[in-house]
């Protein structure tokens, strides 16, 4: 058991001792302290005197926030950080880019989940755990829903283009694909089918007419 010192009224770092309270289960003296942040904490006298305990726990939390803040800003020049900023801008009604993106995002109630919007590191961890690499782009599985873990994935740019709202879906012989996908299936150059259909060709004619050499 510790030798008992009278610590009442004394300051130890961010803690001011209020009064003696019951000992711990080993018989060591404990004190009720008030932290500068306003919280109260029950602390062993030996921990106060040895500087083992300096606050109610707020110092550790602040230190962790600083580590996260530093980690985040070490990544400001990375591609994934720019992607995160882009998502925030597209879904932020108060953004300077509001007019540019409003009709496709905020105007359709497309948002970003609080966890991602508040903290880049949370978004970064999710991305790494879900296959992110610098050749992929973030995609909303349901284009009418938000940027959030359950609705997002990392895919290639080609897959991204096929998931756009304005993609035209063409049905031919019981199969449905975008024009880009049909071009690939039929081994046509990109834009060929679109040009044919824009000229008023039927789907049958556009799909069956051989390419010019």
Tell me what the structure shows.
- Helices cover 37% and strands 17% of the residues.
- The N and C termini lie far apart (95 Å).
- By secondary structure, the chain is of the alpha+beta class.
- It has helices at residues 45-49, 58-73, 79-91, 98-101, 114-118, 120-129, 157-162, 179-185, 192-198, 203-208; strands spanning 11-12, 15-21, 30-35, 40-44, 137-140, 152-155, 169-172, 175-178.
- The chain has three domains: 1-72, no CATH class; 75-162, no CATH class; 169-208, no CATH class.
- The protein contains ten helices and eight strands.
- A hairpin with an 8-residue loop joins strand 2 and strand 3 (30-35).
- The strands form three sheets. The protein has a four-stranded antiparallel sheet. A two-stranded antiparallel sheet has the order 5-6.
Can you describe this structure in just a few lines?
By secondary structure, this protein is of the alpha+beta class.
Q: What keyword list fits this structure?
A:
10 helices, 213 residues, single chain, two-stranded antiparallel sheet, 4-stranded antiparallel beta sheet, alpha+beta, 3 domains
List the helices and strands and how they pair.
Layout lengths: L10 E2 L2 E7 L8 E6 L4 E5 H5 L8 H16 L5 H13 L6 H4 L12 H5 L1 H10 L7 E4 L11 E4 L1 H6 L6 E4 L2 E4 H7 L6 H7 L4 H6 L5
